[in-house]
Amino acid sequence: MRHLIKVFKALSDGNRLRILKMLEVRPLCVCEITEVLQLAPSTVSKHLALLRDAGLILDEKIGKWVNFSTNDAPNQSYVSQLLPLLQQWLPDDPQIQRDREKVLAVDRDQLCKS
Amino acid sequence: MRHLIKVFKALSDGNRLRILKMLEVRPLCVCEITEVLQLAPSTVSKHLALLRDAGLILDEKIGKWVNFSTNDAPNQSYVSQLLPLLQQWLPDDPQIQRDREKVLAVDRDQLCKS
DNA sequence: TCTACATTTCGCCATTTAACGAAATGAAAA
DNA sequence: TTTTCATTTCGTTAAATGGCGAAATGTAGA
After folding, report:
1. Tell me, in Å, how far CA of B61 is from C1' of D28?
2. Which residues of chain B are at the A interface, by a Cβ-Cβ cutoff of 8 Å?
3. B99-112 average pLDDT score
4. CA A21 to CA A11: how far, in whole Å?
5. Chain A residue with Cα closest to B84
6. Is A93 inside any structural domain?
7. Closest to B17 in 3D by CA, of A46, A65, A78
8. N or C: which end of chain B has fewer CB within 10 A?
9. Is A95's CB within 8 Å of B1's CB?
10. How many CB pairs under 8 A join A and B?
11. Is the distance from CB of A21 to CB of A27 less than 8 angstroms?
12. Do A17 and B1 touch (CB under 8 A)?
């Protein structure tokens, strides 16, 4: 039960839901997510750690950046059944739509230097 | 998105998950749930209000008692897709199993007078 | 009407959570 | 090696959360 609670807790925050819906578009690094959510990098990092610990996302270090992506082939059954549901939810949410447009416009190399 | 967050928040507490799994056995009143969870009635009432506001359970006042039951025909799509998943989860959790045995043993008329 | 009692509401307290900035970490580039 | 910079960790603060007991609510039965 502990793991299930951890998954639901991870899903019960608006900013973390926004992150998951952004990652449906493509993998992202911390500074890209920071730009879209307009939060402090340390805050975004904490959200991502929570999502990772719940098994909802994966992180892969590539050079200077860490790429975060949705955990599409999870061995945990909770996540493998919840992620497809989440993918079909909130398609018309204006906040989510704005986030996704921003994701498409964001360029990592331009963004992260400033 | 607000409603989805409310549903996930309602699901992200151990005692509320225990309540939902108990209600899979049969409808229950506050004092029966109080007996199984060993919490104060006011605390249980608060948990139930949260689950009701999320659309996960229904309440029906019958005389002195209020019967709570899982919302099996919900018009909200989140709940209608999540409840079947929850029903197939945690079948072997020892805590959940103990709760269900207690539910079967509890007698409302004997219990609530004390 | 008066009493009993299941439930809810209110006020309070301890813990958790989400946010921030500053400092630490670690890899790439100069 | 030294600097740069993406990311994480740490410490702090304000708000949310889960718990309790006491008081309020409302219905059933005497």
Report:
1. 13
2. 1, 4-5, 8-9, 11-14, 17, 77-78, 81-82, 85, 89-90, 93, 95-96
3. 90
4. 11
5. A81
6. yes
7. A78
8. C
9. yes
10. 45
11. no
12. yes
The answer to whether some atom of strand D lies closer than 7 Å to the beta carbon of B2 is no
Band (A75; pLDDT cuts 50, 70, 90): confident
Does A114 reside within a domain?
no
Residue A29 forms part of a structural domain: yes
pTM beyond 0.90: yes
A9 versus A74: the higher-pLDDT residue is: A9
> What is the total count of domains within chain B?
1
Token pair of B76, please? 């909200």
Q: In whole angstroms, give the CA distance from residue B93 to residue B75.
A: 29
Output the CA angle A72-A19-A68, nearest 5 degrees.
55
Chain A residue with Cα closest to B7: A12
Q: Give me the residue label for tokens 């506001």.
A: B53
Which residue of chain B comes nearest to A93, CA vs CA? B1
**B64: CB within 7 A of chain C nucleic strand:** yes
Rounded to 5 degrees, what are φ and ψ at A65? -105, 160
Task: Kindly report the CATH number assigned to the domain that includes residue B60.
Answer: 1.10.10.10
A42 CA vs D11 C1’ separation (Å): 13
d(CA B47, CA A4): 18
DSSP E strands: which ranges in chain A?
57-62, 65-70
Q: What is the pLDDT of residues B45-80, one digit of tens each?
A: 999 999 999 999 999 999 889 999 999 977 778 999
Question: What residues make up the domain containing A29?
Answer: 2-108
